[in-house]
Every structure is written in C-alpha cells, then in structure tokens.
Amino acid sequence: MKRAAALLAIAMFATAPAHAVTVLVAAFGEVTENLIADSPLGDVTAGEGVVMSFTVDSSNFVDGASGDSRGYVISSFSLAFSGGVNVGLLIGGDTAYFTLADGIPVSDGFWVSTSPDSPGGAPLEQEPYNVNLDLGYEGDTLASLGILDAGGVYDLDGLTRFAFTVWQGSPDFPGMQIDYHQLMIQPLPPVPVPAALWLLGSSLLGLISMRRR
C-alpha cells in the first residue's frame, strides 16, 4: 500500500506536462509623423518615444497554413508614448498574434496581426485605428519558429524591411509613422505552482499516516 502511494506520487510529477513559459515582447521606436486628429492618439506629437509591449504564452500558438510562420496569441498589450498616451487592443476584437516567420519567402521576420499567415496589424481600443508592426531580417536570423529560441534583441543589424504604423482603413495610408529602433523578446522567470506543491505535500502526509498506522 505504501509502495503504491509512493509510486503514485512520483508518477504524478513525472508525467506532468512541462510548464508553458510567458514571454515578454517589446518594440521600441520614435514617432516621425502623426496625422491623427482624434484623442488620445491625436495628442501624440512627432519626436515622442514609443514602446509597444505585450506577453505571449510559449504553448499558445497557431501555425500558418504555409508551415513557415507561427502566431502566438497576444495578451497584456500596451502601446505607450513618452508623452503619456497609452492605448490597448480592442476588447472583444479578433485575436491578435505575434508571428514568427522563418523564410517567407527568403527572409525571417516578425509581425503583429490578426492572422498568423500575413502582416496587417491589429485593432486598437481607439476605434477605428489599428497598429501594425512588420519586420524582415536576413534569412538566417531565426533558427526555428519556437519563440523560446528567438529570445534576444533585434535592432537594425540585418534588417531588410520594417513597417511600424498606426492606421485607419489601410496600412498603406498610415495616420502615424513610427521609426523602428529595436525589438526585444525576453522569457520571464517561472512562477511557483502552489497546486503542485499542495499535491506533493498531501502525498507525503498520506505516506506518513500509513507508516504510523
């Protein structure tokens, strides 16, 4: 009986799935032009710094149809300007993805979009504006579509193209132009798992009780 309980406790942890990793993504830039009139985005002026930041779960993704891209579901999104304006994504809108592309068609890259298959941007809470980030790098920049393998800082080295804009109606006619500086991808430290600790403690208490009896 004691042996069976011990084996059960060990098996419970041995077969537990690996924990997903939360990854912080942040893109940095500077506003070069703003044609938006509506507040709060209309209050942003040229020269302000921009930080677009969000988190993704390393296990929550959708592969693109071509097999060359993978979109990670975005959460905790913020588009913050140094003048104090801060805008989130549209609540209840289409799912937004941070996509890694490996070799489409000859370059590697990243984009923020509602599709893991192509760039195009995601809707902001200030309707009807969308934010767009589309970065292309030399074809050997990414080793895989795994976001944990992509951790690091991506600046202008090897950059082949970029689009960092806020737009209405079409990304080809942006209301705000942003000069791209760098992208940071940083896995966050793991957090304790109280439930797992509780299960382990319960198993040990059960073994002690059986031993006393």
The overall pLDDT average reads: 84
Care to count the β-strands? 11
Beta content: 35-45%
Q: Give the CA-CA distance, first to last residue.
A: 12 Å
Secondary-structure element series: HEEEEEEEEEEEH
Structural class: alpha+beta
Question: Using only CA atoms, what is the Rg?
Answer: 22 Å
Low-confidence stretches: 1-17, 196-200, 207-213
Shape: globular
- Fraction of residues in helices? 10-25%
- Count of discrete domains: 1
Task: Give the key terms.
213 residues; alpha+beta; eight-stranded antiparallel barrel
Structure commentary:
The protein has 2 helices and 11 strands. The protein has 213 residues and is of the alpha+beta class. The chain has one domain. Helix 1 (2-14) runs antiparallel to helix 2. The longest helix has 19 residues, at 194-212. Mean pLDDT is 84; it is low at 1-17, 196-200 and 207-213.
